[in-house]
Amino acid sequence: MTGAAIDSAVEPVTDADLGLPEPKFVIGAELETMKFLPIKYVVPGLIVEGLSIIAGKPKIGKSWLCMDMALAVAQGGSALGNIPCQSGGVLYAALEDNLRRLQSRMRRIAPYGDWPKQLTFTTDLPRLDDGCLEILDQWARGASDPRLIIIDTLARVRGARGDRDTQYDGDYQAITGLQQWATRNNIAVVLVHHTRKLEADDAIDKVSGTLGLTGAADSVLVLDRRPNGDVLAGRGRDIEEFEHAMKFDVDLCLWQILGDATEVRRSNERRRICEVLAASSAPMSPTDIAADAGMKVPNVKVLLGKMVKAGEVWRPKHGVYALVDLASSAPAEPEGNRRVTAVSNRSTAEGNHDTADDHHTSGNDYLVTPAGQTTANSLKSNNTSPEKSVTVEGNRKVTGGTCGYPSEPEDNQITEVTGVQGEGR
User: Fold this and answer.
1) Is 350's pLDDT higher than 80?
2) Strand (E) positions, 296-422?
3) How many other CB atoms are found less than 10 A from the CB of residue 181?
4) Burial of 9 per CB tally in 10 Å (0-12, 13-18, 19+)
5) pTM
6) Using CA atoms, how far apart are residues 226 and 246, in angstroms rounded to an integer?
7) Which of 56-60, 93-97, 299-303 is least confident?
8) Which of 173-187, 329-343, 389-403 reaches the highest mean pLDDT?
9) Average pLDDT over residues 350-365
10) For residue 103, what is the enclosing H or E element?
11) Which string of b and e fits 337-362 if b means at least 16 CB within 10 Å?
């Protein structure tokens, strides 16, 4: 028999012959017409179907956070204060607790009883490589609309790492099977984990372990304690990146989202600046404000610039700031396409975003504060603060408010008509 005849007589070996799974390919035209169920947002904006990791330092309150979400989903209530959740089956695996402690915690966050039948507890699960997924399958088949599984903690179910696996490979393989199970069953699975001791600029990098762990998960959330307050940061394949400022109610044992962490922190820092200026009998420099407020000087300078534009503070003279109040209404800084100049015995208002700081004055000068298309003068006599001022906005006249929150007058209504004392009347 020739070589060609021999080759034709031998059947090729397939993946099936070797016991390997056959590869599955989908062409673009088929993918385009495929229909899929909508993604389940179990806790909208935070927890979605698939595998999520919630990490934080020990005793920071991760379990309280997870129990609140579990109860909200089981009841169809609100999580973290104001996130409405659709009702569904929940399994909470509290592997570091016992039933007595679970009962005590539930009585703290649900003191009025009527605990939902949709919420199931367990304090024992086998490891992921020793029957855990089979137990989860059993629960999911018996639950009504299973939506959420919380495993607290990862360390209690993590399988052993292979002798030849690198640390990265070991971390990745440890949860890959659970991630695939969650995706296949359209269920949100949350693994509670710890953060490492070393600090990091990116909150996700604080998760204990290698990038193999965070890379295998669909979403990663970190409950972090920072100098400006607690923050819940998250990033995922099906959720937008977020950083929420958090507050823990020690009486109710519940976490609440206060808002975007940057905005809340800025509001808190502005309030601290206002408090420092309010306690001072004289205008203060940014350096002095930073020292009293416990803030960094560059941050104070940036915020002061924004607060001047917002009318919360003003500059009696170059380099110092004072608080705007109703008793001694300081001229508000201009906003929009306006130019403010300070000139002796006259006022101008033009475009181009210039401010009074561009033209410093001394002696008996006027500080001009235009709004809309008109101007209003406030006398600076011998470098002292004016006693009264008025800002004209369009067809309205209003006075400044405390710390940047003036009252809103109606159009064409004069809420206060005042002059200024001195030669400029």
Assistant:
1) no
2) 313-314, 322-323, 339-340, 349-350, 365-368, 377-380, 391-393, 396-398
3) 19
4) exposed
5) 0.66
6) 11
7) 299-303
8) 173-187
9) 38
10) helix 99-109
11) ebbbbbeeeebebeeeeebbeeeebe
